[in-house]
Design a protein that fits this description.
- By secondary structure, the chain is an alpha/beta fold.
- The protein is built from twelve helices and twelve strands.
- The strands form two sheets. Strands 3-2-1-4-5-6 form a six-stranded parallel β-sheet. A six-stranded mixed β-sheet has the order 7-8-9-10-12-11.
- Helix 2 runs antiparallel to helix 5 and helix 4 runs antiparallel to helix 5.
- The structure holds adenosine monophosphate and manganese (II) ion (MN) (2 copies).
Length: 318
Amino acid sequence: MTLDNILVEIKKAEKIVIMAHETPDGDAIGSVLSMYLALKKLGKEADVIVKEFPRTFSFLPGAKNIKTKSDIEKYDLAISLDCADLKRLVGREYFEKAEKTIVIDHHGTNTMYGDLNFVNPVSPACCEILAGMLEYFDISIDSEIGSCLVAGIITDTGGFKYSSVTAETFEFTAELLRKGVNVSEIYQRVLETKTKSSFELLRRATNRLELLEGGKVAFTYINKKDEKEVKAEPGDHEGIVENGRSIEGVKVSVFIREKEENFYKVSLRAGNGSNINVSDICYVFGGGGHPRAAGATVQGTVEQVKEKLLKEIRKAFC
Ligand code: AMP
Ligand code: MN
Ligand code: MN
């Protein structure tokens, strides 16, 4: 089975590289770091490639070992974590040249771009898949690995509040607490602490927030100029889209962020009690994600992107 084959490939490989999706969130970071630490336990020193590392996660074990690029051109094995498709993978040049490739993910829109693919769309976080996988591999989850895993689980479940949370999520977290992982501290650091720049971005986005379609759509944006003015760092935009989601009556929260000139990174979230599948909407624009949280990149000005998105969102309301 795939899991056994994954372990065979890991044991066989000497040069291993681990990577995740662009603009990495807590699940992407927690996944690459826990995999890095787990491989160390098997006697493997892997390279971890991450660009735009958010400062929020720099306290996690292994964070200091992250690289932005490598001198090794051809790895024996490349492992992609928490990334639905090759075009969003940071370090895809290493992935494409590697002898063997493994994809471990929880996005329903995963394109299965590895030689071995282990994708579970009902898992609330890639870190939760890894927790089960490490157990299967008989690699003991110590407090360092556990801290990384729980950081990913907490961020991808919005602090255990999304409907994607399972009984296993709590059981695994309880197990970590028993092992001495400071779940409360990790929670405070990854979800309850904002950089000042992040707060300033949120303030701007909140001021601009519009309620459209009779209050069913919340829309806001930030552009490069905002990020420059508030001296934004990687990850500072995280959470802005959640703001619109919590407004009564909102079925879809939309947040767009200027990526490069005339291109916006779109984040969509289904509102409380909404049955709109935002992954389907993002799929139309070449993106994807989960039914209640998804993304895509869309071309145009703020107004043009807004109109393109509203057109598809209206269809979903019918
Ligand atoms: P975000 O709005 O960037 O926080 O993304 C929400 C969810 O959708 C996350 O699980 C992302 O990994 C996923 N996602 C975002 N953008 C894309 C994309 N272009 N293609 C596939 N999945 C995406
Ligand atoms: Mn992610
Ligand atoms: Mn994830």
